[in-house]
Design brief:
With about 210 residues, the protein is an alpha/beta fold. Helix 2 packs antiparallel against helix 4, helix 3 packs across helix 4 and helix 6 packs across helix 7. It is about 35% helix and about 25% strand. The relative contact order is 0.13. The protein has seven helices and seven strands, in the order αααβαβαββαβαββ. It has a single domain, classed as Vaccinia Virus protein VP39 (Rossmann fold, 3-Layer(aba) Sandwich). Strands 3-2-1-4-5-7-6 form a seven-stranded mixed β-sheet, with helices on both faces. The mean pLDDT is about 95. Helix 4 links the parallel strand 1 and strand 2.
């Protein structure tokens, strides 16, 4: 992958940042041999399937954020990529319950000198400051993600959830119990998939029983 492919997303990536993304890619591939950071059958296409796929989440995020929380961060996708692309050095918090994956995240944080915090807890047990941006990739169905977001997002915060081709069914299921504003950003890397940009999340009041 080269810098021009990031320009497709509206992101101007420096040569130094490209080198650090190369370093991250090498780390992910190395660690994936022993722990499941990415599916082995996607390793040959890691730049498109994982790095650019994560970069597009950063590309659609509102500007001016201070606190980004990445839920179920796993291999740091998109969280570590966001931290690498963010030239302002704002705080990115990676929440991951798996100890071995947290060991990887902390190794990447140290080797890449990133301003990230790694929280090795289940999402429900983590004590987190309210987020301006909340991201999750291949973590849970949308109704469950909205439950997390309802407790973690600031009042004017935005959730960015990467979803596959069946996202519309998840949206319909979520609207049974939640109201929210939704913008669908078609994926640049996977036809049929989208990034769901969600704000103003509120739980629906139960209908009175007659």
């Amino acid at each position: 992958m080269n810098r021009d492919q990031f320009l497709d997303l509206g992101i101007d990536v420096s040569r130094e940042t490209m080198e650090r993304l190369d370093h991250l890619t090498a780390l992910i591939l190395k660690w994936t041999k022993s722990i499941n950071l990415i599916a082995p059958n996607t390793a040959d296409d890691i730049w498109t399937r994982h790095i650019k796929d994560s970069a597009q989440v950063y590309a659609v995020a509102p500007k001016g954020w201070n606190n980004w929380i990445d839920l179920g961060s796993g291999g740091g996708l998109p969280g570590l990529v966001v931290a690498l692309l963010d030239s302002n050095g704002q705080n990115v918090t990676l929440v991951e319950s798996d100890k071995r994956k947290c060991l990887f995240l902390n190794t990447a944080r140290r080797e890449l000198s990133l301003n990230v915090s790694v929280v090795n807890k289940r999402i429900e047990a983590a004590d987190l400051a309210k987020a301006d941006i909340l991201s999750a990739r291949a973590l849970a169905p949308l109704p469950k993600l909205l439950e997390y977001a309802n407790g973690l997002l600031s009042d004017d915060g935005v959730a960015l959830f990467s979803k596959g081709e069946r996202f519309q069914q998840e949206v319909d299921d979520a609207r049974i119990h939640w109201t929210f504003d939704l913008t669908e950003q078609p994926s640049w890397t996977n036809a049929g998939s989208s990034i769901l940009k969600i704000s103003r999340i509120q739980r629906r009041e139960p209908k009175p029983q007659h």
